[in-house]
Write a structure and sequence with these properties.
This protein is an alpha/beta fold. It contains 19 helices and 14 strands. α11 (292-314) links the parallel β12 and β13 (316-321).
Length: 529
């Protein structure tokens, strides 16, 4: 039995490998493959590499690191066991130190250095570099073809009825929503100065048309109907993430079936191809999977996933929306989800990350039914509710009353994220909170958890790595470190001299007796006995 120990630091992309207690040599293939790389880049082939390098299939494993990376580590070896590549007698997980406040700690260290005696830490180049990385925005692009309920899904993620539902082929408007934790949404509205044949709507091609201090659903409808509006840049609270930790930006694109503006039509492809760290929510209509507009885009997505490996696969969350339109008494819900899996497989997308969802129910639970205890609701009170709320009551009964409609069960959420969601559900059941239970069963919480998990696994670790490396690069390219060491040395020498002087004064004071003061003399050379 060969014992393999793996210790992985996602912030420095450092992997320490030991076999039977000994570090693997630097000329080993295992060392070369993992050196300076993200775990997700090599973990898929790692079990096979271990077998070939160590010439054994019998392994005992120990992993030390963050929980989300452990999920991928464990998953890789479980797949390898099923494929007969290795035989694992046991896997031990050692949790790494919590990283919840690591970003705040780095910022605090930098602020303390700026307030210190060395002026170089206040150098504009260093400050600008640090602030740019610390304020990096992480994008989630939401794409879909017509009638998928994309706008409703975005509203459900926001917990607010902001985006207007419409025929997506009739608008060329891109909407960006930046998380600022502000209680109200505001926006800057842009028109395009670019020509239709321009390849992409870069910022220099936009002109400000309007500033909106308090953005509402009604204003968004008006803006989307205005043919001169090309981009709506909004900010407000995206509730499931803390903007101080990671600035999330939801990007609603017109989609591949937009025929009005070629530049905006290409936005989807640029998002997939150019920004490797962004997340893609691809929204499908569960009741109408096959559309001609999907074909080209899905083939393109499949090609990107094949080229990019696990991290690229993790970038795509396929949301199967409108699941509430199925009847659990007459239709097999699991078969409907399996149909979506086969549909994607036909385009070459194998083992997709699927998230069945009822976005409309989730949105109404967060808006028209917010704060209403539906378990205590009388018939008379129910009649006074808005139509959307009354219709949602039926959906809540469906989601809570039928085990097959517990949509969170069918997702490909990571084990650690699923465990957190299961705990949240157990708390809702214990409290008798029917609204919370239905919200979880609607599938929207699973999508929010998946986005959060991706941000922690990729975006946050990259941000921390870039902060540290950029800081270190500026330090090494200047004389800051030399000056800092010199300052420390001088401070230490001064402190020692003061201590010597003080000691000498005390000695002479004792010799002269009480009340006799030592005159002010400079520090003497030599050491005290």
């Amino acid at each position: 039995m060969t014992q393999v120990s793996v210790k992985y630091n996602p912030y420095r992309l450092e992997t320490e490998l030991k076999v039977n207690g000994q570090k693997v040599p630097k000329d080993s293939l295992l060392y070369k493959v993992t050196k300076g790389k993200r775990l997700q880049e090599w973990i898929g082939e790692f079990p096979k590499m271990l077998r070939d390098e160590l010439n054994t299939v019998a392994l005992s494993l120990e992993y030390c690191g963050m929980a989300l990376d452990w999920d991928d580590f464990e998953d890789a070896f479980e797949h390898a066991e099923k494929a007969g590549i290795v035989k694992v007698s046991g896997m031990r997980y050692i949790a790494g130190k919590s990283d919840d406040d690591i970003n705040e700690k780095i910022v605090k260290v930098f602020q303390d250095l700026q307030e210190g005696p060395i002026s170089d830490f206040r150098d504009p180049k260093l400050v600008k570099c640090f602030e740019e990385i610390n304020n990096t925005v992480f994008s989630v692009h939401v794409i879909a073809t017509m009638s998928s309920g994309k706008s409703t899904l975005i509203n459900a993620l926001l917990g607010k009825n902001l985006m207007p539902s419409q025929n997506e082929a009739c608008t060329a408007t891109i909407t960006e929503i930046l998380d600022s934790d502000a209680p109200a949404f505001s926006a800057t509205v842009y028109g395009s100065k670019a020509k239709e044949e321009d390849k992409e709507p870069v910022s220099s091609n936009f002109e400000v048309l309007e500033e909106v201090s308090e953005l509402t659903h009604e204003i968004m409808e008006r803006l989307n109907q205005n043919p001169h509006v090309q981009l709506i840049s909004a900010d407000g609270n995206i509730p499931f993430l803390d903007a101080k930790d990671t600035a999330l930006k939801l990007v609603d694109t017109p989609g591949p079936n937009n025929a009005q503006n070629q530049a905006h039509k290409n936005t989807t492809y640029r998002a997939i191809n150019n920004d490797a760290n962004s997340l893609i929510l691809y929204v499908l209509n569960a009741t109408q999977l096959s559309t001609n507009d999907d074909a080209r885009l899905l083939h393109y997505v499949a090609d990107q996933i094949r080229k990019g490996g696990k991290q690229m696969r993790d970038r795509f969350l396929f949301v199967i929306n409108k699941m509430d339109q199925f009847n659990p008494e007459t239709e097999d819900i699991e078969s409907a989800i399996l149909a979506a899996k086969h549909y994607l497989a036909a385009y070459g997308i194998e083992e997709p990350q699927l998230f069945p969802c009822s976005a409309l129910t989730a949105l109404n639970l967060e808006t028209s039914l917010k704060g209403i205890d539906i378990e205590q609701l009388t018939r008379a009170e129910g009649k006074t509710l808005p139509i959307s709320a009354r219709e949602t009551l039926t959906m809540v009964d469906k989601l809570n009353g039928y085990d097959s409609m517990h949509l969170e069960k069918y997702t490909t959420l990571s084990p650690s994220a699923q465990q957190e969601l299961n705990y949240r559900l157990s708390q809702a059941v214990e409290k008798g909170d029917a609204n919370e239970q239905a919200l979880i069963h609607s599938g929207i919480c699973s999508i929010q958890s998946a986005i959060t998990a991706y941000v922690k696994k990729y975006a946050k670790t990259k941000k921390i790595k870039d902060l540290v490396e950029s800081f270190q690069e500026v330090l090494e390219s200047s004389q800051i470190l030399v000056k800092a060491k010199t300052q420390v040395a001088e401070d230490a020498a001064s402190a020692k001299a003061c201590a010597d002087c003080r000691g000498e004064a005390e000695d002479r004071g004792r010799e002269r007796g009480p009340g006799v003061q030592e005159e002010n003399r400079g520090p003497r050379s030599g050491t005290r006995n």
